[in-house]
């Protein structure tokens, strides 16, 4: 094992960089815009391939969110196949998102056998075919995907259905393979959602309807649709593959279960935004190239805070497509890293004591004419619209902060939430000085301090009520300066940034719950506005301000501007009655409380059975993940750590013995041997306790299992780790079988 570790380290050092060939035309590289979408069957490709009336029918049906008729589907399928085969594709697949956090696919060849009777003889011949039926719907053998009891009670099968809003594309694999990908929903025989996409589409639809109604009340009769926009900043680690291969914990659980964290401040502070190491740059660039081809608009890349930690971020898109693209980004990075002999880690906390990874979900809403509803920088008139939308969001987050917490709960994100370097388990909203002042002034019925002045003007409130007219409403500038990195949900200029989302998880469910809560609050804001305006055609400024005021006051407790990592905030939040949900099982329960049920079921986002099945899947997955971790830790200790300690003890004992032969008392060796003996025994005992606990927990039923995993199992694992980490420091380096943090990270 010693040799394995050394040669892995050597391999890492000697590894030649992998050259990537950016395509050229003449003597220049292709422009990013020329690469973008090369392998996407987009509107342009469709318009080129279809007769005009068919193309128009297709567009109309997609925009109207209708099911495609059979004839149109046949024509689109034919066109897609010809396009894909000309680009080398041999297979197609419905690409869907079961509730596993990743995607699933099953490839089918275009190959079709036909038979013909020629002079009494059957002749078989081969053609390539792809029908509208195959495009629209497929039936994967889906019995082993998580379903939380939905399908077993009805029908064993699930169906995948093309999400026509998300275009088909070609994914290229090793050895020239190319497959036509069809982004799909995954539903049960009875139409229940078994996946992450279906409910996202539903929630976006519900949000759109609620927003359009509010805009109508404000006199906007043009807007027919409001889309949810999403841009996911993705953080990850890249480490050498040879070293990774010697860490069974990383391989099985995605994180290190043992390992001495680097001493504080050892982390190179200058890594952040520093130069990207060339091997990593080559890897990310190749991934970006592949992503660009399939239409993922990756825009930025940079180093993150921790050593070997990086981030890529795309240009934002409609939420359901942004989710597809985030999942594709993770998959492509995973595959490309392999080619560079690197391993990408998406886990939220692969290394104890080292900055964790998140997925900042930047979220907003946009009208069909391209107006961002969270863009405050325009005229005072639209600032009313902006403020109404803003207070609706605050109301939503305030009323459903516990529910929102459930969507970001997982055994892996648990290491991040509440830990001292990431959003705490309390969900609060940050607005920045300027917006806070605007809302405070409206609440207190006083003029808004002018932020164009270098420092905040204080305004005396007095007893008189001031009417805030359009003339007194200052333009709200896009304020990017005051960023509170500690807020889990922060307004950042023209969007909210949901930072508590885990790096490894699909961003879909967090967005679903956010959409659901916001659509409900938009409806409430609209109702209040309709009531305030009475019989008038349009609400007056006073009407609008009164509604903004009403919701500002009722949601005030969710606003928090100071340091979210401080102990004071925990106390303050408790005083305010904000939920501080530390454990996952508790967080999952939030899905089932009456307010959540009402929110999700009455708006048609999840049915009763979809909701309970989701709860069960989450609980089960949580317990399973932790039991896998515990078992992995147990085997690391028994097969790696203890044997290393024993080997070193033997060497020491032999040395002590041979010194005795020459009448020397081996004092220093004995000292070390005693220390090793003590901690080996303590580790053994902790490990035995862990083993017994695993057996006990495995015998419990679902919910009790999850609770026991969260409370007892994690504590027992921590104890084992503590002892193992002491031994890592005591055992001679040459005996240690696992690459150490310093080797993995520096
Ligand atoms: P930052 O300073 O946080 O990097 P950026 O403007 O670069 O800010 O945005 C970060 C992410 O937010 C990007 O993925 C970007 O596309 C996304 N984003 C920007 N505007 C919006 C919006 N209106 N809706 C959703 N996401 C957005
Ligand atoms: Mg950001």
From TrEMBL:
InterPro entries hit by this protein: Gln-synt_C, Gln_synt_N, Gln_synth/guanido_kin_cat_dom, Gln_synth_cat_dom, Gln_synth_gly_rich_site, GS_Type-3, GSIII_N
Keyword list, A-Z: Coiled coil
Keyword Kinase among UniProt keywords: no
Single biological process term from Gene Ontology: glutamine biosynthetic process
Coiled-coil region: 676-730
SUPFAM superfamilies for this protein: Glutamine synthetase/guanido kinase
Gene Ontology MF annotations: glutamine synthetase activity
Domain GS beta-grasp: from-to ranges: 90-191
Pfam families: Gln-synt_C, Gln-synt_C-ter, GSIII_N
Residues in GS catalytic domain copies: 196-641
Gene3D superfamilies: 1.20.120.1560, Glutamine synthetase/guanido kinase, catalytic domain
Database matches in PANTHER family: GLUTAMINE SYNTHETASE, TYPE-3 GLUTAMINE SYNTHETASE
Family listed: Belongs to the glutamine synthetase family.
Listed name of the protein: Glutamine synthetase
Source organism of the structure: Physocladia obscura
Lineage: Eukaryota, Fungi, Fungi incertae sedis, Chytridiomycota, Chytridiomycota incertae sedis
């Amino acid at each position: 094992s010693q040799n394995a570790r050394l040669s892995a380290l050597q391999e890492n050092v000697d590894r030649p960089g992998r050259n990537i060939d950016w395509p050229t035309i003449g003597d220049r590289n292709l422009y990013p815009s020329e690469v973008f979408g090369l392998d996407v069957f987009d509107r342009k490709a469709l318009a080129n391939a279809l007769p005009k009336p068919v193309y128009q029918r297709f567009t109309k049906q997609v925009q109207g969110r209708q099911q495609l008729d059979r004839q149109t589907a046949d024509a689109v399928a034919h066109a897609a196949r010809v396009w894909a085969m000309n680009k080398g594709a041999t297979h197609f697949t419905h690409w869907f998102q079961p509730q596993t956090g990743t995607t699933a696919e099953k490839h089918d060849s275009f190959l079709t056998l036909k038979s013909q009777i020629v002079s009494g003889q059957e002749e078989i011949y081969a053609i390539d075919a792809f029908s509208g039926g195959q495009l629209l719907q497929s039936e994967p053998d889906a019995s082993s995907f998580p379903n939380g009891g939905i399908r077993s009670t009805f029908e064993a099968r699930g169906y995948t259905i093309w999400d026509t809003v998300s275009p088909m594309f070609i994914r290229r694999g090793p050895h020239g393979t190319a497959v036509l990908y069809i982004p799909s929903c995954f539903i049960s025989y009875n139409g229940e959602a078994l996946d992450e996409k279906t409910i996202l589409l539903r929630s976006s639809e519900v949000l759109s309807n609620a927003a359009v109604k509010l805009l109508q009340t404000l006199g906007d009769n043009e807007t027919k649709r409001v889309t949810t926009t999403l841009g996911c900043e993705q953080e990850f680690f890249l480490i050498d593959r040879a070293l990774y291969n010697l860490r069974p914990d990383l391989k099985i659980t995605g994180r290190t279960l043992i390992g001495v964290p680097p001493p504080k401040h050892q982390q190179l502070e200058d890594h952040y935004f520093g130069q990207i190491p060339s091997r990593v740059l080559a890897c990310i660039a190749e991934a970006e190239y592949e992503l660009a081809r399939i239409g993922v608009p990756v825009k930025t890349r940079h180093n993150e805070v921790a050593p070997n930690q990086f981030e890529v971020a795309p240009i934002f898109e409609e939420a359901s497509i942004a989710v597809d693209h985030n999942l594709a980004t993770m998959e492509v990075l995973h595959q490309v890293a392999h080619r560079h002999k690197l391993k990408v880690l998406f886990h939220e906390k692969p290394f104890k004591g080292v900055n964790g990874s998140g997925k900042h979900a930047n979220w907003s809403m946009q009208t069909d004419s391209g107006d961002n509803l969270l863009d405050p920088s325009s005229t005072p008139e639209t600032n009313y619209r902006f403020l109404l939308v803003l207070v609706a969001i605050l109301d939503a987050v305030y009323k459903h902060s516990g529910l929102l917490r459930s969507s970001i709960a997982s055994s892996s994100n648990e290491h991040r939430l509440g830990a001292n370097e990431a959003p705490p388990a309390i969900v609060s909203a940050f607005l920045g000085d300027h917006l806070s002042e605007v809302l405070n002034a409206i609440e207190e019925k006083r003029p808004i301090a002018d932020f164009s002045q270098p420092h905040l003007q204080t305004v005396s409130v007095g007893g008189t009520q001031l009417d805030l007219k359009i003339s007194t409403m200052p333009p709200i500038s896009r304020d990017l300066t005051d960023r509170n990195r500690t807020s889990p949900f922060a307004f950042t200029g023209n969007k909210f940034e949901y930072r508590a989302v885990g790096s490894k998880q699909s961003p879909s469910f967090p967005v679903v719950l956010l959409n659901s809560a916001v659509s409900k609050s938009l409806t409430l804001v609209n109702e209040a506005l309709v009531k305030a305006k009475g019989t008038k055609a349009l609400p007056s400024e006073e009407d609008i301000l009164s509604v903004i005021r009403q919701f500002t006051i009722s949601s005030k407790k969710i606003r928090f501007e100071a340091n979210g990592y401080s102990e004071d905030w925990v106390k303050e939040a408790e005083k305010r009655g904000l939920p501080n949900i530390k454990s996952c099982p508790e967080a999952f329960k939030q899905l089932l409380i009456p307010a959540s049920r009402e929110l999700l079921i009455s708006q048609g986002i999840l049915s009763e059975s979809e909701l309970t099945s989701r709860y069960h899947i989450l609980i089960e997955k949580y317990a399973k993940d932790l039991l896998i971790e515990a078992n992995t830790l147990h085997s690391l200790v028994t097969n790696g750590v203890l044997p290393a300690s024993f080997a070193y003890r033997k060497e020491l004992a032999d040395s002590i013995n041979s010194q005795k032969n020459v009448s020397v008392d081996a004092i220093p060796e004995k000292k070390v041997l005693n220390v090793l003996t003590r901690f080996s025994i303590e580790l053994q005992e902790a490990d035995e306790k862990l083993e017994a606990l695993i057996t006990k927990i495995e015998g419990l039923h679902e919910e009790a299992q999850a609770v026991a995993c969260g409370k007892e199992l994690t504590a027992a694992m921590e104890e084992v780790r503590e002892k193992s980490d002491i031994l890592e420091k005591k055992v001679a380096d040459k005996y240690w079988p696992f690459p150490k943090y310093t080797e993995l990270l520096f």
